[in-house]
Amino acid sequence: MAAIELEGLTKDYGEVLANDDVTFSVERGEIFGYLGPNGAGKTTTIRTLLGLLSPTDGSARLLGHDIADEGELIEAKRRLGYLPDSPAFDETATGREVLELHASIKGDERSDELLELFDPPLDRLVRDYSRGNVRKLGLVTTFMHEPELVILDEPTGGLDPLMQHRFAEFLRDERERGVTVFFSSHILGEVRRLCDRVGIIRNGRLVTVEPVESLLDRSGKVVRLRAADPIPRDTLEIDGVHDLEATLDRGADSSRESARDDSKSTFTECTFTFTGDVNALLERLREYPLLDLSIEEAPLEDVFMRFYGGEVDGEESTAAGRQGTPTEVTDDV
Ligand SMILES: Nc1ncnc2c1ncn2[C@@H]1O[C@H](COP(=O)(O)OP(=O)(O)OP(=O)(O)O)[C@@H](O)[C@H]1O
After folding, report:
1. Per-residue pLDDT tens digits for 14-39
2. Keyword set for this entry (predicted)?
3. C-alpha to C-alpha distance for 80 and 261, rounded to whole angstroms
C-alpha cells in the first residue's frame, strides 16, 4: 500500500482549474518532491489531500485511508505530520505554549531532540518570530509525534543555509527510519539533493513523475573542454552532441560565413550538452591533448525549462544557472 495515492484529483476554483485529473502515488519510505513554479497547483493538491479543500472530482488515500471519509481522514491525520507553507500558530502564544498545545493533541515523542536541531526561541511570542523561526517551530510540531508520513509545503522557506543543510540531513535520516516524505518545492537544488522521485506539475496538470536520476540522465551531461591544439569542428559531429557552442579559430582572411562552411575550421574551447556514450566521446577526442575537461550533470533548470519553456521561477533559475558557460561565444559550430 502506497503512503499517498491520488486518482484523477481535480480542483476547480471556478476561474482557475488548479488541479486537473492529477494521478500519482508516493511509496512508503521515499522522499517525493512535488515541483512546480508559483501558481502551478502544488498547495491545492496538498490542501485537498488533507481535507482542507474538497475536490471537485477524483479521490485520494492517505496511508490507505480514504480522505473523503471523515473518520478515515482523522485516523490518517493522527499518523501524519503537516507543515503548511505559512504555519498559522497562535500569535499571542509563546513557542513553548504552541508545543505544549501540540503535544496535548497529537503527542510528543521527541521534541527535545528536535529542539536541539532546529532551536526556535521558545520563550518568545510567536508574534515576534521571524519567518525562519516560524518554520523551525513548524518543523518541531511536524515531527514531534513521530509521524509515519510528513507532508511539507515548501519547507525551507526562510531557513538560512546552515539550517537548510541541517534540515536536509535530518530528512535523509528520517527516510532511513522509514518515514515517507512528500514535499513541495521550487528550489531545484534541494530537490536534486534530497528526492528519490519527483512529480512535476504545470498549470494544474501533472507532466511527469519519475526518479530524479532518470530525469537528469535524459537531459544529458554538460561538457566543457579546452584543448592545447586546435580541434577540427567536424570532430564533434557525432550522435548525442547538442547545443554546441565554441569560439572558432579562423584565419585572417576567413569571414563568418566561410568559417561556417569550412569543415576545416577549428576551435580550442567549447561547451555542449551530451546525451550519448561518454566513452565514444573520449575516444573521439583522444588524439587532441586537452588542458581541461569537465563533464557534469545538466542543471535541473535545463530539465525544468523543457517542461516549462521559460516559466522557471526567475530568482531560482538565475541563482542556480549554468556556471562557466562561455561568454565569448562567437559562433555556433
Ligand atoms: N482559494 C482560491 N480561489 C481561487 N483560486 C485559487 C485559490 N487558491 C489558489 N488559487 C489559484 O489556483 C492556482 C494554483 O494555486 P496553488 O496555490 O495551488 O499553487 P502553488 O503551486 O502552490 O503555488 P506557490 O508555489 O506560489 O505556492 C493559482 O492560479 C492560484 O491563483
Report:
1. 999 999 999 999 999 999 999 988 88
2. ATP-binding, Nucleotide-binding, Transport
3. 64
Domain boundary among 159, 194, 216: 216
Q: Do 66 and 212 belong to one domain? A: yes
Output the pTM of the full model: 0.78
Q: Are residues 179 and 102 in the same domain?
A: yes
Give the number of domains in the chain: 2
Give the domain-ending residue among 196, 216, 236. 216
Considering Cα of 111, then 153, then 195, then 49, what sign does the dihedral take? positive
- What is residue 204's three-state secondary structure? coil
The pLDDT score that the predictor gives to residue 135 is 95
Atom number of ligand 1 nearest to Cα 85 = 27
Ligand 1 pocket: which of 12, 38, 43 to mutate (most atoms within 8 A of CB): 43
Based on the domain organization, do 127 and 81 belong to the same domain?
yes
Range of the domain at 152: 4-216
pLDDT tens for 92-141 read 999 999 999 999 999 999 999 999 999 999 999 999 999 999 999 999 99
Taking the centre of ligand 1 as the mean of its atom positions, its distance from the CA of residue 85, in whole angstroms, is 12
Contact 9, 55 (CB under 8 A): yes
ipTM: 0.97
Distance of CA 201 from the midpoint of ligand 1 (Å): 12
